[in-house]
Amino acid sequence: MSDAASDIFTALAHPTRRQILQDLKDGEMAAGEIAARFTASGPTISRHLGVLRQAGLISERRDANRILYSLVGERLALSVGDFLSTVCPEQIVLREVRKRRTAPRGSDTIAEA
């Protein structure tokens, strides 16, 4: 598994980080709002946010003195989807079916001279 995939699965391994991702699915949240949802200390939540950010699953932006976090859902979907397609035969079949449906007509035939 690539280092990026390892970072993602490490980030997903902890229930607090999975909950943070679920909380961010509805939109951007300030660090304080996220921390208020947990009984863990602020520094602990900050470390969890750092792990998620390092894995590329969340992004941050500053707004004055606040740090706002948002979900990078496509990274999560692509990484988990890629992993599943390598280990789950049904996913491999579904991926191939999707490729065929979205391929332009005639793309799988040899062009005539």
Automatic annotation (TrEMBL):
Give one Pfam hit by family name.
HTH_20
Q: Does the keyword Transcription apply?
A: yes
- Which Gene3D superfamilies does UniProt cross-reference here? Winged helix-like DNA-binding domain superfamily/Winged helix DNA-binding domain (1.10.10.10)
Name the keywords, alphabetized.
DNA-binding, Transcription, Transcription regulation
* SUPFAM superfamilies associated with the record: Winged helix' DNA-binding domain
Extract the InterPro entries matched here: ArsR-like_HTH, HTH_ArsR_DNA-bd_dom, HTH_MetalResp_TranReg, WH-like_DNA-bd_sf, WH_DNA-bd_sf
Q: Describe the location of the HTH arsR-type domain by residue ranges.
A: 1-91
Instruction: Give the molecular function GO annotations.
Output: DNA binding; DNA-binding transcription factor activity
Which NCBIfam families does UniProt cross-reference here? Answer: HTH_metalloreg
Q: Which PANTHER family match?
A: TRANSCRIPTIONAL REGULATOR, ARSR FAMILY (PTHR33154), TRANSCRIPTIONAL REPRESSOR SDPR (PTHR33154:SF33)
Know the name of this protein?
HTH arsR-type domain-containing protein
